Amino acid sequence: MSGTPSSTSAGTPGKPGDDAPVGTEGTGDDICPECQGTGRIEGRSCEACRGTGIVNKGIGGA
Ligand SMILES: [Zn+2]
């Protein structure tokens, strides 16, 4: 792991594949398009969803 330290708020950390922080109005869990919800890509943990297979996406957006 290398990057910026981000420990502002406890709870669910944001994921690279998230459209918005978890809990944002109008967004919700969705299958990660990068790994199709498997959480893995070619045997490695998916970075977009941090291996969870779930990302936070906007709902009902145009
Ligand atoms: Zn993924």
Question: What low-confidence regions span 5 or more consecutive residues with pLDDT below 50?
Answer: none
Beta-strand segment tally: 4
Mean pLDDT: 84
User: How many H/I helical runs?
Assistant: 0
Shape: flat
Strand order of the largest sheet: 1-4
DSSP strand content: 15-25%
- Integer-rounded radius of gyration: 12 Å
User: How far is it from the N-terminal to the C-terminal residue, by CA?
Assistant: 35 Å
Any ligands, ions or cofactors bound here, and which? zinc ion
* Secondary-structure element pattern, one letter each: EEEE
Q: What is the subunit arrangement here?
A: single chain
Assign a percent range to the helix content. Answer: under 10%
Protein structure class: mainly beta
Largest sheet: 2 strands, antiparallel
Give a brief rundown of this model.
The chain has strands at 27-31, 40-41, 44-45, 54-58. The chain is mostly beta strands.
